[in-house]
Amino acid sequence: MKQILLVDDHPMVRERMAEIIRLETDLTVCGEADDRFQAMRAIESIQPDLAIIDLTLKRSNGLELIKDVHARYPAIPILVLSMHDELLYAERAIRAGARGYITKQEATRKVMQAIRCLLAGDIYLSEKMSAQIAAAAVGSSRAKAGLPLDGLSDRELSVFEMIGRGQSTRQIAEELHLELRTIETYRARIKEKLSLKDANDLLQHAIRWMQSEGSN
What stretch(es) of the chain map to CATH 1.10.10.10? Predict the structure, then answer.
């Protein structure tokens, strides 16, 4: 029996995934978590055969969790289940250590296909994303149209998201365990990369983007 850990901050999403998984006679849900701390504790004690992780978690960031799990337990395959734009996040997730990416919009239809793929030792991505990553690997210079945030580093993107959720510089620093001046440096880099003129412009841009992500 293969054990699967569910990491998502929405109980209804975890419940839906659990229902799908439990229809399979050789799979079981061995645990659930809604933040980075709970997830690492569960992985350390259970060491599941596969972890399904959302990118937006309570008080934490899914990409950072993926990096932690991959560094400490590289044999555990990670499937990302997210509402976020695949073109912006899938490649980042794979670089962080995930072996698959699926959006919540298509999860019910394809989640089992993705799970089986990862348990067999393969990588699961949509055809569109696979083609884009392949193009990048051979040095394609084609820009990712409509993705101005693509130039942000993983940490900068995390800070940008947290700004969009209304968190202050101090709150971001505490959550990421970094100094205030480090977060200020990230903010300055984000403003420069996105051509934003001041802190208010940054806040409004981040809020609008988070709202658009939530409506996807």
Answer: 148-214
